[in-house]
Amino acid sequence: QLQLVESGGGLVQPEGSLRLSCAASGGTLDFYAIGWFRQAPGKEREGVSCIMSPDNGNSYYVDSVKGRFTISRDSTKNTVYLQMNSLKPEDTAVYYCAAAVLSLGLDSSNWYLTTEYDYWGRGTQVTVSS
Asked: Using one digit for the tens of pLDDT, what is the confidence trace for 92-103?
């Protein structure tokens, strides 16, 4: 059973940076598409970014984070990262990583749908405030 653990959240000032990590056990992340989602109080969970398999190489971002966030993999560490720069107060949320079996065919039309993912971590809090 694949298990995901997020880390790297915290309190940061506006325009600051954080790097979130999604570490896996019980399976190899290279076999999955990995998504980052976030959920602010009173709001629905939102897809932030997704990275496909190492062979595919595609990645996707929600418009609000394009140019500020970067998703990446380190296969040697079985970990996926979300580098977040130029953070804004509206980025405040609990951030979750999730894994989807690649055979489901994630692409630009569905990567942001929570229903496409099979495994979820418990989340890490990111707070952007002065």
From this structure: 999 999 999 866
Neighbours of 126 (CB within 10 A): 22
Residue type, 63: D
User: Contact, 41 vs 116, CB < 8 A?
Assistant: no
Cα–Cα distance for residue pair 127/30, rounded to 1 Å? 30
Strand ranges, E, within the chain: 3-7, 10-12, 18-25, 32-39, 46-51, 59-61, 69-74, 79-84, 93-101, 119-120, 124-128
Residue 103 confidence (pLDDT): 60
Residue 120 and residue 94 in contact, taking contact as beta carbons nearer than 8 Å:
no
Give DSSP secondary structure letters for 76-99.
GGTEEEEEE-S--GGG-EEEEEEE
Residue 36 near residue 48, CB atoms below 8 Å: yes
Q: DSSP label at 44?
A: -
Beta bridge partners, 61, equal 49
User: Which residues, at least 6 apart from 19, have a Cβ–Cβ distance to it below 8 Å?
Assistant: 8, 81, 82, 83, 84
For position 98, what pLDDT does the model report? 98
d(CA 25, CA 2): 6
